[in-house]
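[step 3/7] fold_predict: job queued, chain A
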Amino acid sequence: MTPADERITALLSKWAKSLDLHSRYTELTDDQYWLVQPWPEHQRPNRWIVDLAGQRLSELLRIFQSRVAAGDQSLAEALELMLFLTNLVGSQHVQRFIPMAEPEQERPIQSLTVRSAHAAVPPAGPASRPPTDASPGIQRPDSAPPAARPKQPTPAPAPRAAPRVEDPLAPPSPRAGAQSISREATPPTPAAPGVDAGSKPSPWPRSREDDVLRDAVRLLSWGREWHELPQAIARMSGRPDGATVREILKVHRAAIEQRVAEGAAST
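[step 4/7] structure written:
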């Protein structure tokens, strides 16, 4: 028997022991199954899956033993190559498989009982009745009605502030007058040069924005189309990304077209 035959024989024997353990584990509950071995993440195999794997393993073991008895050394080498290629090429990240169960890793099944989170409450027995006094007309002390609890006094509601009545002839408060005067005295902020008064302030630095505008005017004068400008400018050194360039061009398109038209008229 060659070393390859010995390795395949040991592997098949290990698989057979694992399937025997899985056949026993099919009788366990879910809680006991997940504690009996240090399993990897997988789906618990059913009984028919374990039985099918055992049948196929018996057929493979019979074929392998017959080839080894006949002196065929190529089967073991072919099986080792198949195992190598399966792990290297054909393996997929699936959870539906029968994991390896080893007798050395098995935990005692008797210790796998999962205790309930709630302790069992003993059943309550019949309530014992107090002995009744035979003599009528005599009241027991423990049967006296409970004393009535004294009612706590209800707190009086807090007094509400009287509504403020303003005199229509009184002069306005100085705060309101100061606000109106400050609003009237504050002049409107002049718009930046090159930007329309109705447009929002630009979120980009002024130098970067000017570079993009000059690049756009130059490329348009060379015959480039509008849809080509963002990617062409973004590829230049020191320019923002394509999305930022596209936003700048969108905001200042009218000014760019006006500069291109003025340059064409001057030439």
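[step 5/7] annotate
The radius of gyration is 46 Å.
Residues 3-25 form the longest helix (23 residues).
exit 0
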